[in-house]
Specification:
With 426 residues, this protein is α/β, with parallel strands linked by helices. The chain has one domain: Alkaline Phosphatase, subunit A, CATH 3.40.720. It has eleven helices and seven strands. It has a seven-stranded mixed sheet with strand order 3-4-1-5-6-2-7, with helices on both faces. Helix 5 runs antiparallel to helix 6. The longest helix has 29 residues. The two termini are 29 Å apart. The relative contact order is 0.21.
């Protein structure tokens, strides 16, 4: 369920959303805050998600030892400088099947075709986080590069920004006066259309059977979600965007780094994610890596082709180069967050949970079990390898992450508890 409180509601929401304020997605705001344990109140207010589509070579990713004194496997060697800032997990998954067709369940645990069987549909952990903190920023959430991993509670796939230059312009280039005028008119027009649709739908609801009423309620939820987004967008129309003057980022702005051939392509996307957080343009940002080889030395085949390595020596050698490249850039990203000091003395990493994973364990076997997963930052007590031994669902980890962001809930999709073994600092 979405969480709001009255002081965060805009005047437009109150006046035009009486039906909205009484709906189930908003009812948690009526619950006393002391209903939930104090340690669930927001300590980490940001979330970053980085996903890869083809699994990892799990023998080179999962440590052989558990606890804090584990030896970093070859794929995780780039994290040596920040080994106390992250936790690696093994034997966590959603107990789903389907290979590539189930990859999209990574962040929700729910197949899109089975969403009707869950109270919150197949909402993904990043979009649930956006419901919690998205009202604080211009963009409730941002999805970069490849779409298809992030879903709203109404089952809508969140579109991704496919080119670095488009992401830069979206966050850091102000709209023209003409575009702002157009945006205001569009918001007003869309609000009027939604009001009319809701009025007609409420009249129709009285004539429907129970099953159709449930379907219509899903439709209502989608409209309410859109209306909330419109209300947020209205407040940001005339506010200037932050300006970035870094010469290196100017090459991103003009499209020079849009090519997918250069080996710095992943680095560029992570730089944009860093700037999105640093400028508080958003507090929830996700990136899904696309297929490619990015012009890396020693790599001639695509990521997808190499993932079907069949234990052959040459594909494994090339795949190791790609996986090292991914991990080197992710480790650098975590180091940057750790170095970025925030008011009060905490680093940006202290207040940002960084999740890395794939919906496939081994791409070669098309397995959706024993997923490669890392969680960094966010005020957790890291520096360990947790082997869940398949006794806990992955959604237990997501529930822990959401409670860390202040979610007043005791379940998330397929969870049955919070994750055992993950503790906060102090």
């Amino acid at each position: 369920m979405a969480i709001f409180n009255k002081r965060n509601m805009t005047r437009r929401t109150v006046l035009k959303g009486m039906g909205v304020s009484l709906t189930l997605p908003l009812m948690e705001s009526l619950m006393p805050r002391n209903t939930f344990a104090a340690n669930r109140i927001a300590a980490a207010q940001r979330m970053v998600v980085v996903t890869v589509p083809f699994g990892m070579v799990v023998d080179n990713f999962h440590p052989a030892q558990t606890g804090t004194k584990y030896e970093l496997p070859s794929t995780l060697q780039p994290f040596n400088k920040v080994r106390d800032e992250f936790t690696v997990f093994s034997n966590l998954d959603h107990d789903v099947r389907g290979g590539h067709a189930a990859n999209h369940t990574l962040l929700s645990g729910v197949k899109s075709t089975e969403r009707a069987g869950y109270p919150d549909g197949n909402i993904t952990v990043d979009q649930r986080a956006a419901e919690l903190v998205g009202h604080n920023t211009r963009f409730p959430s941002l999805v970069f590069w490849k779409e298809g991993m992030s879903f709203t509670r109404t089952g809508v796939r969140v579109p991704g920004v496919a080119r670095p230059s488009d992401a830069f312009k979206l966050m850091f280039v102000d709209d023209s006066d003409e575009q702002k005028k157009f945006n205001r008119a569009s918001i007003e027009s869309s609000g009027s259309i939604l009001d009319a649709i809701l009025e007609d739908a409420r009249g129709l609801n009285r004539e429907l059977g129970k099953t159709d009423q449930q379907k219509l309620e899903e439709y209502f939820s989608s409209i309410r979600e859109t209306e909330k987004k419109l209300a947020l967008a209205e407040g940001w129309t005339d506010k200037p965007k932050p300006h970035i003057t870094d010469p290196a980022m100017m090459k991103v702005a003009d499209g020079s780094r849009d090519t997918k051939i250069g080996d710095n392509y992943i680095e560029v996307w992570l730089d944009l994610m860093y700037l999105a957080l640093q400028t508080d343009s958003t507090r929830v940002v996700s990136m899904a890596v696309e297929n490619g080889n990015w012009g890396l030395d020693g790599v001639t085949d695509s990521y997808h082709t190499l993932s079907h390595h069949g234990q052959r020596e040459d594909p494994l050698r090339q795949l190791a180069i790609i996986e090292q490249h991914l991990m080197q850039n992710l480790a650098r990203f975590i180091e940057r967050l750790k170095s970025a000091e925030q008011p009060g003395g905490k680093s940006l990493l202290d207040t940002t949970q960084v999740l890395f994973g794939s919906g496939l364990g081994s791409g070669s076997r098309h397995s959706n079990t024993n997923l490669p997963l890392i969680l960094a930052g966010g005020g957790w007590n890291h520096g360990q390898h947790i082997d869940a031994r398949r006794k806990q669902p992955l959604c237990n980890l997501y529930l822990s992450m959401l409670q860390r962001m202040g979610a007043e809930q005791d379940y998330f999709n397929r969870s049955n508890s919070t994750l055992t073994g993950l503790e906060t600092v102090g």
